[in-house]
Design brief:
This protein is an alpha+beta fold and 96 residues long. Helix content is 42%, strand content 22%. The longest helix is centred in the middle third of the chain and has 18 residues. 22% of the residues are buried. The structure holds 7,8-dihydrobiopterin.
């Protein structure tokens, strides 16, 4: 069972992330990405999918042409956990 982050832990975690915003009604974090075209967006999604599978932790996400919206929360914990923060960091690392 993954534990939800406390308010202090969440604040500290968000300080280490760039561009991720809290979605209070979901106890989640969300970030939007924009690419040159659909292929760039889908290639990014492919790489994120491999990260997610390796982490056994999966995003809630959407794609419209060159844009990708990613929301991270932990279903097992009904809220934000360290797994979400770790995946967010790994996703950001894909873009350098
Ligand atoms: N992804 N976001 C998210 N939250 C989860 O709780 C979760 C997951 N991916 C897989 C997973 N849990 C595992 O527990 C599976 O065995 C269900």
């Amino acid at each position: 069972m993954t534990a939800k982050l406390t308010a202090a832990e969440r604040t500290a975690a968000l300080a280490e992330l760039t561009g991720w915003t809290v979605v209070p009604e979901r106890d989640a974090i969300r970030k939007s990405f924009k690419f040159g075209d659909f292929v760039g967006a889908f290639g990014f999604m492919t790489r994120v999918a491999l990260l997610a599978e390796k982490a056994d932790h999966h995003p809630e996400w959407s794609n419209v042409y060159n844009r990708v919206e990613i929301l991270l929360t932990t279903h097992d914990a009904s809220g934000l956990s360290a797994r979400d923060v770790a995946l967010a960091k790994a996703i950001d690392a894909l873009l350098g």
